[in-house]
């Protein structure tokens, strides 16, 4: 049986495989301004609460799990929409600091929540939303096949790193690295070398 993988780890992996490994394998974590701002944003939804307004029931801090995928975590908010007398349909919402990003890490984390909800509730979930603290707006996310495939791929690749027990070498990307709270520990400028992570991971799995 695979060890449980936490949903938030997928976001770390998509942002940087080395960051994921430092947290997952080596237990490293350091706060910075960006992570602190994220914590403040999440304080509003960290307590379990259930509110109903009209045909929408809103549940915050909802525990999620998928036994088949071996993942679990906490959904910031899940709205349950009911049309007339039909069954409720789930709509997960993840709160993030900052603004929408060019990469899909946030979308993958949200999609993983949807996969958990689908297994738990026995229903298909077509969409959710990301709420960004800087824009104060929801960004709707459609759980299409491409995003589902990317999410499943990320889960598999996280497990591959865990199975090797080895942390990928750093690759210095200025824009990403400067915003990472683990930069001083990671030392990407002094230790980094130009190795494609996919090549590194494939080599480690082959050697294992």
Description:
By secondary structure, the protein is α/β, with parallel strands linked by helices. It has a domain at 5-15 and 31-164. Helix content is 42%, strand content 25%. It contains nine helices and seven strands, in the order βαααββββαββααααα. Strands 1, 2, 3, 4, 5, 6 and 7 form a seven-stranded mixed sheet that branches. Strand 3 and strand 4 form a beta hairpin. It is globular and about 60 Å long. The model is unreliable at 32-38 (pLDDT under 50).
Summarize the structure.
The protein has 208 residues and is an alpha/beta fold. It is built from 9 helices and 7 strands, in the order βαααββββαββααααα.
- Segments where pLDDT lies below 50 for 5+ residues? 32-38
Treating each run of at least 4 consecutive H or I residues as one helix, how many helices? 9
Q: End-to-end distance, in Å?
A: 18 Å
**For the residues shown, what is the average pLDDT?**
83
The SSE order reads: EHHHEEEEHEEHHHHH
Judged by helices, strands and strand pairing, the structural class is alpha/beta
CA radius of gyration is: 18 Å
Helix content: 40-55%
Count the E strands: 7
Shape: globular
Largest β sheet strand count, sense and barrel closure: 7 strands, mixed
Percentage of β-strand residues: 15-25%
EC number: 3.1.12.1
Pfam families: Cas_Cas4
Enzyme class: hydrolase
Domain DUF83: 8-187
